[in-house]
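Same chain as my last thread, 145 residues:
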Amino acid sequence: MRNSAMRNRVMRSRLMRSRARRSRPNPFPPHLLPPRPPAPLPYSPHDDRWWVPPLGFSALALALSAVFSAPLREEGTWPWWWAGYLLPLGMVGRTWFIDRSQRGRQARVRLGVVGCVLTAAYLSLLEAMGGAVFFAMLLTGHVRA
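reply #2:
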């Protein structure tokens, strides 16, 4: 019996407090409060700046091919040696078509870096391969020194 009386008294006091709260005026009327900051946007798997790596790597690859291909522009070089730039520039061009989500960002950067490195190293690789072929021909007797 004592527990139920205590419970009733507590419930009555809570009821009185809640009525008293409702009757008080709001000291912070909503029209006087500063505006709320916008709610943060939910996570989106879509990468908003997907175009930054392809654009940067495209510009870099074109600049590298212009700088490093100077010996190929000299008179007497075979024009089909320019075809070696198609693979690295194609790799950089492929970065524009990779998945435009956060997952694809690493693949775009990786492919762009490899394409730019190959663009810069193509002429050195061409000279090294030409030297290796000449050395092999010299060893096999196809070229007389």
